[in-house]
Amino acid sequence: GKPYQCPKPDCYKSFKYINSMKRHLQFHDGNYPFPCSYPKCAKAFKNKYELKCHNRLHTGERPYKCQESGCGKAFRLPCEYTKHRRAHTGERPFKCTWDGCNAAYITCGGLASHMLSHSNDQHFCCEFCGKTFKHKMSYHSHIRRHTER
C-alpha cells in the first residue's frame, strides 16, 4: 500500500514514498500553488508554465518540432529542442578551459564528464576486481563484463 498519509485535515491522499508526501505538503503550505491534476501524481509547481511543461509528461505532447529536413524529432521542453539542434548545427558551446585542450561539448554534462579526465580522481571502483574508473559509462561497461559470464 501507501504508508505515508497526508497529515493535513480534509486531505486523504497517501503516498508510497515519504519524499512524495513532503512534496505534496509543500502544496498545502502554499509554496507550490499549481498542483498536477492527473490521478496518482502528487507534484505541484511554482507557476503555470512549470505545470504546463510537466503535464506534457502525462499527455505526451511534444510541441517543439525539429525543422531539419528528414529529422522528425519533437520535444517536450524548449531546452531539449535547443540541445538537439546542436547535433544538426555542430554548435558546441561548452568548451574545456584546461590549457591546451580544445574539447567542446553540446551539453554542460558532457563537459563536466570530460573535465574528470583532467583530474587524477577515480570516482568508480569495481567491487569484483578493484579496478577504478573516472567515468560512469566506462565503469558500467566494465561491470557488465563480470556479470554477463
Automatic annotation (TrEMBL):
The keyword Zinc appears for this protein: yes
SUPFAM superfamilies on file: beta-beta-alpha zinc fingers (SSF57667)
UniProt KW keywords: Metal-binding, Repeat, Zinc, Zinc-finger
Domain of life: Eukaryota
InterPro entries, A to Z: Znf_C2H2_sf, Znf_C2H2_type
GO cellular component annotations of the record: chromatin; PcG protein complex; transcription regulator complex
Entry's Gene Ontology molecular function annotations: DNA-binding transcription factor activity, RNA polymerase II-specific; RNA polymerase II cis-regulatory region sequence-specific DNA binding; zinc ion binding
Transmembrane segments: none
Residue ranges of every copy of the C2H2-type domain listed in the record: 4-33, 34-63, 64-93, 94-123, 124-149
Protein name listed in UniProt: C2H2-type domain-containing protein
UniProt organism field: Arion vulgaris
